[in-house]
Amino acid sequence: MELMFLILGKTICSSLSAVIYLTTDPPTSQQKAIRPISLISENDDDPYWKNHIEKYFNHPEEEEFTNLTYPEYFKNYEITITQLTSTKFKFRHLKLHDEQLFFYQKLLLELPCKIEEELFGKFLTYQEHWLFHHPEFNETLQQVTHDYIHS
């Protein structure tokens, strides 16, 4: 049924609320989509569509953007052409056993940053960096990991 509405260009429902899916995969796991040839100029060195993370990292240098986290940036600065809408954000559901993907997502959602390297900080892994900001979870994480391995 939904397919018929989409083919005919009809609206299934009218809502003042929008849902935006924000990717939280690290660069090594991100998929890229190539732009149509008509949108790529001769001087363009990047034929791919920019994803939300790249757009966030390219935010303006002004002070009002400095402390914005990834979701705050899109929540506060989405441009709509028609009418003011309420926007909800969806993220990929990750669990602790997703390891570095899980901690990358946590850091991306919690820390304001301008470049990818800031999510690593001075640490070797995303997990170490996240636990540095949340030491209260260190013992819990060790217990959960221990229980998971021995079950």
Automatic annotation (TrEMBL):
Signal peptide from the UniProt entry: 1-17
Keywords noted in UniProt: Signal
UniProt superkingdom: Eukaryota
Name of the protein in its database record: Uncharacterized protein
